[in-house]
Amino acid sequence: MSANKAIMLTPGPTPLPPSVSHAMARPILHHRTREFGELFDFTIKEMQYVFRTKNSVLMMTASGTGAMESAVINLLSPGDKALVHSTGAFGDRFVKIIETYGLKPVVIKEEWGHAADVKKLAKALEENKDVKVVFFQHTDTSTGIVNDLKKLADEVRKHSAAIIVVDSISGLAAESLEMDSWNLDVVLTGSQKGLMNAPGLAFAAVSEKAWKVVDQAKLPRFYFDWRTMRKSLKDKETPYTPGVTLVMGQAEALRLIRQEGIENVWKRTDELAQYTRAWAKEQGLPPFAKDPANILTALKLPEGVDGQALIEEILKEESISIAGGQLHLKGKIIRIAHMGFISKSDLDAGFAAIEKRLARVKA
Amino acid sequence: MSANKAIMLTPGPTPLPPSVSHAMARPILHHRTREFGELFDFTIKEMQYVFRTKNSVLMMTASGTGAMESAVINLLSPGDKALVHSTGAFGDRFVKIIETYGLKPVVIKEEWGHAADVKKLAKALEENKDVKVVFFQHTDTSTGIVNDLKKLADEVRKHSAAIIVVDSISGLAAESLEMDSWNLDVVLTGSQKGLMNAPGLAFAAVSEKAWKVVDQAKLPRFYFDWRTMRKSLKDKETPYTPGVTLVMGQAEALRLIRQEGIENVWKRTDELAQYTRAWAKEQGLPPFAKDPANILTALKLPEGVDGQALIEEILKEESISIAGGQLHLKGKIIRIAHMGFISKSDLDAGFAAIEKRLARVKA
Questions:
Q1: Residues paired with residue A206 on neighbouring β-strands, in sequence order
Q2: Is residue A200 exposed (0-12), middle (13-18) or buried (19+ Cβ within 10 Å)?
Q3: What pLDDT digit, counting tens, does each position of B195-236 carry?
Q4: Contacts of A71 in chain B (CB under 8 A)
Q5: Do residue A198 and residue B15 have CB atoms under 8 angstroms apart?
Q6: In chain B, what residues touch A325 (CB-CB under 8 Å)?
Q7: Cβ separation of B62 and A223 shorter than 8 Å?
Q8: Is B184 exposed, middle or buried (0-12, 13-18, 19+ CB in 10 A)?
Q9: Are A31 and B13 an interchain contact pair (Cβ–Cβ within 8 Å)?
Q10: CB contact under 8 A, A66 and B246
Q11: What CATH topology corresponds to A18-259?
């Protein structure tokens, strides 16, 4: 580690507030004690506040991808029809998981950078009346888009009684989301983005309507079985040894979120996004996303600038982490995150580092 | 948290060395950087040292139970015959996982407190020539036994070419284990016991013989797919965002283990076990296990002593955590751990707390 003060502008892991790091460094608790039980129960209740729901919230010790797989195996049975409305790399991951279990989902693929089109959704639902579960993303970090979940969910209900699953791994506690008033059935998230914690915990909020499906679902599941998690929840426990230090950190981060107020968290993220877009406009860097999210801004680079080399140089020389493009966008875009414990001063430092190097190219 | 200095004598999570807690509180790294890649690579190489193997080691962000499920789904296919030689609650868990995937394993169940009997194993293998995978535990924390893995593995090879899987979640880096010289095919472990780290990481060491089976296996798997993990290993990466702070802690704990030397770690655990047994003999507390492990000592309590009330009082009044009995042993035994960052002085404090309360009962 260099002596440079590191700045992270990456979309997860995001930087940790000092009090979260300190909470994780406290003497570890045993997970079958009252003290841990209280902390776990607090975490679950505060997650309901963040999800904006009265539904039960489950916690898994896993990456976000584990939570995505848990939704597939707890909601689907062999022969079921699923619909995935994919708006980037993480939507495509739902397709892969579903196919892994021998099901053939109906897939709507939007061009990268575009949000989910309600007309395409309506058409697919009209052609597939028997769809049982619809999978959406809230935001996609690969392209920097946000979906209009309220509109999409309303459209689903016009056509069917399908369960609505939302991957909000990168969106929650950054981009506004109202689980109950938008009538979403399942919302998934991870600890390392808007939730300002280290990676390793994942959460699923599950509606009563979804539970009826979970109880009947026939795909095999053990570690990710939601039914076992719900049972333990009553005793303020997890079925298996949880990531205890991560829960200690999450509880502290949730205390910070409650203190700020979830609407203020959304507002702060929105302000950072606007600030970044204004700077980018000045610099002549066009946004990549047609429907840009607040969680991060993806920017196209001028012809002749190698984005990969740019971010590697900035990391090496200034200890500032900026994300590049994924897959076919590698080298062509850069992605600057706004979620979690990222401040205006972090952005300013990142902007200065980018400007300096772009000026060199123009010269 | 009371002002009392807490002492943990529980078999996982075990207490963390201060430098491990500090390592986890360092500024978080992004998982797609060279710096994290080097730390991850170091962790994997040092895990090979601890497993005593040249085989590839995989890392999962999950509890030990996740690693157990990963072994089942990466090694078995529909119709395969598995054999579980169960010596306690965690052996029984293998049976449940296998049944979840629609297979009917052959099960040998030892009476709790007894190690796996080689004669019973020989008989079962003779009657089931087509067994493809055999599941053992190294140690079982529910009963405090240790299995003679070398003898058991030799017996398996006399009868068949079955893959030998060992759950060493509570045994590794505490009880001696030689993966390569004992010819074990798969060894599983978790971060929160002998490995002196917080819970949330699990590891699987996989032999070349086992990889041939993994590549052909037909049960569905995504998050726990070992093939994806092996591919990323080449780039010093994990397929999905790993528990970054947990890897930071694990690397430090592995540095401590290397410094002490793995044989000395085994010796230290053995000495604590002998010390505890000698004290228990003096106190007239008979051992529960017929084949006692070094990782923890399970002791029977005198008639009329409620073990559950005893440990709750000790936790409340002296901030010392001691484990009670599980399932039908609840209230009847206590379990004192010796693995990980537990010292003789921790044991002395625990012994004093127990003695004081037993004297009250005798009086």
A1: A56, A186
A2: buried
A3: 999 999 999 999 999 999 999 999 999 999 999 999 999 999
A4: none
A5: no
A6: none
A7: yes
A8: buried
A9: yes
A10: no
A11: Aspartate Aminotransferase; domain 2 (3.40.640)
Please answer whether residues A14 and A7 qualify as being in contact, where contact means their C-beta atoms are separated by less than 8 angstroms. no
Say yes or no: B197 contacts chain A, CB-CB below 8 A. no
- For residue B192, give both structure tokens: 């929160």
**Does the distance separating the beta carbons of B101 and A220 come in below 8 Å?**
yes
Q: Is B312 on the interface with A (CB under 8 A)?
A: no
Can you read off the two tokens belonging to residue A82? 């699923």
Of A191, A183, A145, which is closest to residue A166 (Cα–Cα)? Answer: A183
Q: Using omega within 30 degrees of 0 as the cis cutoff, is the peptide bond preceding A302 cis?
A: no
Q: Is the complex ipTM more than 0.95?
A: yes
**Which residue in this structure is represented by tokens 């010819």?**
B183
Cis preceding linkage at A239, omega within 30: no
3-state helix/strand/coil string of A11-38? CCCCCCCHHHHHHHCCCCCCCCCHHHHH
User: What is the identity of the amino acid at B213?
Assistant: V
- May I ask the CATH class of domain A7-14+261-362? alpha beta
For A98, name the nearest residue in chain B, comparing CA atoms only.
Answer: B222
What is the Cα–Cα distance from B241 to A169, expressed in whole angstroms? 12
A–B CB contacts, 8 A cutoff, strictly below:
177
CB contact under 8 A, A245 and B198: yes
3-state class of B33 per DSSP? Answer: coil
User: Which range among A170-184, A201-215, B317-331 shows the weakest confidence by mean pLDDT?
Assistant: B317-331
Query: For A67-106, what is each residue's pLDDT tens digit?
Result: 999 999 999 999 999 999 999 999 999 999 999 999 999 9
Write out the DSSP string of A147-164.
--HHHHHHHHHHH---EE
Tokens representing A140 are 């996609």
**Which amino acid, one-letter code, is at A154?**
D
Please check whether residue B67 touches A, CB under 8 A. Answer: no
Beta partners for B83?
B106, B134
Delimit the domains of chain B by residue range.
7-14+261-362, 18-259
Is B100 close to A243, i.e. CB distance below 8 A?
Answer: no
* Residue A172 near residue A192 (C-beta atoms within 8 A): no
CA–CA separation, B187 and B164 (whole Å)? 9
The answer to whether A149 and A175 have CB atoms below 8 angstroms apart is: no
pLDDT band for position A1 (50/70/90)? very low
Distance CA B142, CA B329 (A): 9
Using a CB-CB cut-off of 8 Å, the residues of chain A touching B241 are 12-13, 63-65, 190, 192, 199
Which residues in chain B are contacts of A244 at CB distance < 8 A? 13, 192, 198-200
